[in-house]
Amino acid sequence: MIQSIKNMKTMISLVFLTMALGTLQCSDIKKEKKISMQQENGKFQLLRDGKPYFIKGAVGWNFLDELKAAGANSLRSSPSLLNRADSLGLSMLVNLPMGAERNGFDYNDEVAVQQQFDKVKDIIETYKDHPAVLMWSIGNELDHIPGDLDYNLKLWDAINDIARMIKEIDPYGHPVMTVIGYGKLEKIRDIKERCPDLDLLGINAYASLLKVPEWLTQYGWDKPYVVTEWGPSGWWEVPRTNYGVVIEETSSEKAVVYRERYEKVILADPRCLGSYVFLWTSNRQERTHTWFNMFHNDLKTETVEVMQYMWTKEWPQNRAPQIHALRIDGQSAVESITLRQGELALASVDCTDPDGDTLRYEWELLPEPTSFGSYAGQGEVKPEAVSGVFELMEYNQLQFKVPSGKGRNYRLFVYVYDDHGSIGVANIPFYVDSK
Fold it and tell me: pLDDT digit string (tens) for 283-299?
């Protein structure tokens, strides 16, 4: 009997010891930060599992095998892709959904703000232990309202409440940001004052990316940042024809500016922890179906290979076709081409291939849309192609009949294939006058 009591006491002691060790281990896990940031001599550095981690990422949701093969290590997308990213060894900047005033969300509505808080909290509790999580992004350009209208300052209070909540329940210390665009530059003051719980900023910028370091210095931003969207010059930043039509860079021109902006800002600014290039997908319409996309259909443009070089210092074995010029009747887009309906016009593209591959050309004529999405191309659809106007296609030239429609703008596209998985893309707008 006495021995049985002793055995029972021993077992109880072991149970309590096991529980104590489990509690201690759990406490240790909560204190262990998988992701951290450090600053030394003015330079910020991101650490993942204690090792330096410079973000080489993209915004997107497909072509993820190609993203990994190009040398990227991260993806900016929704939580639904966490498992896919992890299977490829990619980390993720997780987008957390937030209501925007431009879409009717009211930050004076305390009930709606609380419901949003609870929704985001559920997402954090669901995914905080996922191994692919790198950082959390609270919304995207929530300060932007088309027309450059003023935003509600309570927006920043709601963001900070969520940032504080994430820090309380996320055991691994994943950094928290919100993403802003390059506009209303003084908003940095509001963020510094109202969002002390943010660890860093996410910044979306295109041609204006070269101005970002000076902007942050001007307004005293003393934390690190990540460039969360960047790429070609935006349609709001490029020259226009005399008829108000924006002039898109060719795929080769885009490759040049991708490299320049990456080297001059993302690699050069000691406050920058890396970036997510935009947009790792194809055929998404915003002004055109080629403007921001780094792929066309399932083919890579030069922007993909220049990012591979930026990430790995190695070019792909086979390079994409390079477009040097696209003209109609010898005129370039900046000359505001005017054609008469019914006449024959001659388009030509000057293109070479670094590998000497035989090139194949395809042309497409689209009417220029007359209405556009109020924000980020939302709701825009590629127009129906104009048919029955191509007269003669020969090598790099196209003879076409100018379509009817006095006072209308059109855009002629050329797609140059190397039949090795890459493509060159360009377009040129023109205006139709009457005879």
Answer: 999 999 999 999 999 99
